[in-house]
Each structure stands twice: as C-alpha cells, then as structure tokens.
Amino acid sequence: MLIAQTKLGERKLASACFKKEKEQYFCPSCQKEVLLKKGSVKRAHFAHRHLTTCAAFSEGETVEHLAGKFLLAEWTKNGELEAYLPELKQRPDVRWGQIAFEFQCSPLPLERFLERTMNYQKHDYVPWWLLGQALLPKGAFSQLVKACCFYHSKDGIQFWGMDVKSEAILLYHQIAWHFAYPVYYEIQRFDLCKYSVREVLATPVLAKKRVLPWQISHFKQVLTKKLYYQNPTILKLQTKIYELGGHLLYLPEWCYRNSRYFFFFEEELLYLRYAYCQTESFVAWKEIVNPFVKSWSYPFIPLEKILTEVYAECASLQKIIFF
C-alpha cells in the first residue's frame, strides 16, 4: 500500500515518510500496524508488520502495480489514492468521484473479480479495470480478460490495459473471435501526459476495420474436424442441436456467417441461430436458449441486450437469404 494512517488518523504517503522519524503507521482498513518500506527497487510503500487477513489490502504488490496506481493518482489529479470505502469493505487503487480505478497486475479468480465488481455497482460506483502486462492477451482471452470487457452496439467489444513503462493506458477494441485464429483486436493508446480522463472517455474509437477472411466452407471443415476428434464442447453442441432436430454440419447456410457475437458464444452461437429457426417469437426463443447461456460472466454487458441483438441479427440474416 502507498498510504497509511498515523495514530491520529492522518493519511501519509509512503514516499513522503522517513524511517528516522520513528512514526507508527496503521492500515486504513484493518487498523493493524504496517511498516514503511523504502528501497532502491520498489517505490516506497507500506506493508503489514505481521501476516494477516486484511479485507482491502494484499501483500506482495509488484513494482508495476505500485507504480501504476501512483500514475493513475497523478493522472486523475484530484483522485484519491487507495481510498478505503468502509461501506463496501473495498479499496480501489484510485477513486475519482464515482469511478473506482482498479489496476490488476496478477491473476485474480473470476469469482473474486465478479464479487468486487458487483459490489462497486451495487453502491453506485463505476469500476474501471485496467490490466497489467502479465494479464494482457497474447492469444486466446482468459476468463478474467473476458470479464473486463464492455460493449457498445456501435464500437463493439472493448477492454482497458495499462503500460506503466510508457505511461499510457490502452484501449483494446474491434475484438472478434475467428474459428481459425486466436481472438484478434486493435489497440488505441492514450499517453497519460497528453490526455485527461475526460478526454479519453470522449475520444472516438479509431477503428481500422481489419477483416480476417471468413469462409463458410472453411468454418464447416473446422467443425467437421472437431467432431471427428470428439472435441467435448463440439460434441455437447451437436447433442443440443440434435435435440432440436438438426445437425451441426447441416444447418441453414446463414447460420455459419460471421458475427461479432461469436466472441461471447464461440461455436455455440450456432445453437442460438438454429433455435431461431425452430421458434416463432423472441419469448419462445429465449425459453429455449436461456438454459444454454445461464453462465454469463460479463458483468459490464447485459445479457438481455446481447440476446436481443442476436435475435435481430438472425432475423436479418434469414431475410437476406430468402429475399
């Protein structure tokens, strides 16, 4: 932690304290004593004197994390560094009004991420998660990266990262899934010395509209291969489609067309599309697909919104085929 309290309750920044002062410092959350750590490698910080379970602070912060949250505090200017929120029993790295900045540099269990995020939302805070270098995707997206994603009907799927060395935050956007490649995306940089928080939020997404080739015949070849090698996910998908009277490889041609919604469901989007063919209303369709999408782990993206758009896309694609 970068901030601790004195016996009188005064908040002190570690970099402004000196060991020779022999002052006692205490954790703002659990009120247990912490020690001032000042060395040549890590930024000056405080650490609990004894190993303890603290509701808001965890030990072993990396150099990247300590530097990153200090950068965020400077960037927001009047943001509060390590602002402990007693009603939430949480401590965002920086609180700027009702925005809670969280710079995540190490793996975090999905359940814990969802708990913290929903707790912020329940108390009318907007959590702004930024991922550090170790968590930024280098291929397929982890569950944590997916959970950090948000969505705009116009600009698509996005999430935020931060590069501490170059002092920039990164907007990952134009995110899409492809049956033959890892998830792909574009990155838009915002140097913290050039952009304010408000300017970042107001800057339009600069999309290059990169398109990877999507051939239905190639997609079906990939599906055929996965069926042949008994891929568990694909076998389960085939079983569900068979229960509706279809076969994974012989759906209406439009079902295999490219879509941004493959990111959320991957091949299982085929089931949602085929279910559309078997129903006559949105309500009836939802009754079929709801059990299939019950494990929704995108706290920033309403499932109802995505289902509504998927249904509308099905209607549009089917109409193109028939007319």
From TrEMBL:
Where does the Competence protein CoiA nuclease-like domain lie? 61-202
Which Pfam families does the record cross-reference, listed alphabetically?
CoiA_N (PF25164), CoiA_nuc (PF06054)
Q: Which domain of life does this protein belong to?
A: Bacteria
Where does the Competence protein CoiA-like N-terminal domain lie? 19-56
InterPro entries, sorted = CoiA-like_N (IPR057253), CoiA_nuc (IPR010330), Competence-induced_CoiA (IPR021176)
Q: What is this protein called?
A: Competence protein CoiA
